[in-house]
Amino acid sequence: MTARITRRSLATRSRLAAVGAIAVAGSLLVTGCGDQTKDNGSDSSGTAAGSNAPLADKLPKSIRDKGVIKVGSDIAYAPVEFKDDSGKTVGIDPDIANAMGKELGVKFEFQNGTFDTLIGGLASKRYDIAMSAMTDTKERQEGIDSDTGKKVGAGVDFVDYFTAGVSLYTNKGDDQGIKTWDDLCGKTMAVQRNTFSHDLAKDQAKKCTEDGEKTLKIEDFATNPEAETRMRSKGANVVSADFPIAAYSVKNSGGGEYFEVVGDQVEAGPYGIAVAKDNTELRDALQAALQAVIDSGEYKKIVEKWGVEDGAITEAKINGGS
Fold it and tell me: Where residue 242 sits, what CATH number does that domain have?
């Protein structure tokens, strides 16, 4: 989404090097529309607690007793999490959560929320975890506001489960010469609010100004589909999102006729399952479950199903982001 929250410092602009061009065609073996809408409902994944769950004893007793892990998620970010035509929550995250649920003997109940409220939902105990294409960064781990640099919360721990870079995409046949982020000076970007793409855009806008170029104008929206709609109406020149989301939209929106990816991915980083700092027992149980899913080969099947093998990991790390 998000990518999502927490800008890396301006010094890291030098790290905005391409992590390799990845062709969109054939990259996501899925069907459906990228323009998903939000729903205020929830969905459950996983299995009920029972003797067939090898890692159930690792969970906090309160969660074992409930048999449910409440998941805060912005369910409008295909193919990571989105609603299918029947209204069911589907995608990479729900599939991984479902596999982890079988190891832990609980259901993962996805509850829809605006992306920039998910970490607050952990603090208020509305959710047990947040799983929503959320980039694991040091700022987020430490509870640092990305704009002011000031500490605004206790921070969270992450169990890292995927790796993704950030992509730019435009209306199809109208790339306006955009190949790199430095080509964005003088352009207008539509982007989901408080995502990692949003933070990179703010850094680029400052860089354009410092270099004496026309600035990058940024229009931010609550969801990525809203940003895409703004670009489709010619109100913006370009959208930025995590590569799996950009590639999915390019492949599926308008039957593949609406958008095209321009340039290469940048700033590859880990997606993490966010857990409150004081909930280490749950964090460690999630890490064990994810590693079991990786070791069993089920994780490989999931990323292959969604055509995102390039982002696969082999080790479930805690707080591996930088």
Answer: 3.40.190.10
Residue 277 domain boundaries: 42-164+270-311
Q: Token pair of 98, please? A: 């479902």
- Report the alpha-carbon distance of residue 90 to residue 171 in Å, rounded: 26
d(CA 13, CA 200) in angstroms, rounded, equals 8
- Mean pLDDT, all residues of the chain: 86
Please determine, for residue 227, whether its predicted confidence score (pLDDT) is greater than 80.
yes
Q: What SS3 state is found at 241?
A: strand
Among candidate residues 161, 47, 46, 96, the one with its CA nearest the CA of residue 302: 96
Share of the chain above pLDDT 70, in %: 84
Phi and psi at residue 2, to the nearest 5°: -170, 20
* 40, pLDDT greater than 70: no
- C-alpha span between 118 and 129 (Å, rounded): 9
Read off the pTM.
0.77
Residues 87, 222, single domain; the answer is no
15: confidence class by pLDDT, cuts 50, 70, 90:
very low
Class of residue 298 by CB neighbours under 10 A (exposed 0-12, middle 13-18, buried 19+): middle
Please say whether the beta carbons of 308 and 167 come within 8 A.
Answer: no
Report how far residue 245's alpha carbon sits from residue 123's, in angstroms, rounded to the nearest whole number.
28
pLDDT at 51: 54
Domain co-membership, 172 together with 119 = no
